[in-house]
């Protein structure tokens, strides 16, 4: 076990999009970053290689699989003995028009909720004891403005993110004072997370917002960094990163 003076950060879904941008920022802060990935080990290892500093590792953590989560926890416990930062960035969705209730069948609904709501909770539950050893740990759940607007890739995704925000509030009460808990809620982010969504569609949505620009993964990562490093007297809140789209 390594007794590292550096903060130890685990990012689920850390090899792409918001997760990757967050990994880059946290590494620049001097943290040792564990890049969690579901299936694409090569992408995770490429992200690790791009991080500033040494000691970063890739770790498979499939957030819908209890055994995978337990194995990741055991790896972190064995190598580092604690966890200071957990960013739940892993997720999955499938575009279904909001009025197509039949297209959102039970199997798809359950899958979306399992990954986007139960998954983060399962990871938090597994890593709780390691985070309590930190004494000043932070959890950031990547949510979505869809939790508030009811408009997103599908209704199950909106509902799951609404549940994630409620979970954030409840966990903040349960896990304090040693662990702060946040949600960060973006709108349309310039990633490939939603299949088939084009840059032109993102720009059209952005033109209807007060700030009139497309949110980048780096914009969301900056909010995550701020929650970890600056909001030391806050917990249980959602930080909205959507160019004012919710207004």
UniProtKB/TrEMBL annotation:
Membrane-spanning parts: none
KW Oxidoreductase (keyword) present: yes
Gene source species: Mameliella alba
InterPro entries: NAD(P)-bd_dom_sf, Sc_DH/Rdtase_CS, SDR_fam
Official protein name in the record: Short-chain dehydrogenase/reductase SDR
The keyword Cell membrane appears for this protein: no
GO molecular function, one term: oxidoreductase activity
Keywords of this entry: Oxidoreductase
PROSITE patterns to which the protein is assigned, alphabetical: ADH_SHORT
Family listed: Belongs to the short-chain dehydrogenases/reductases (SDR) family.
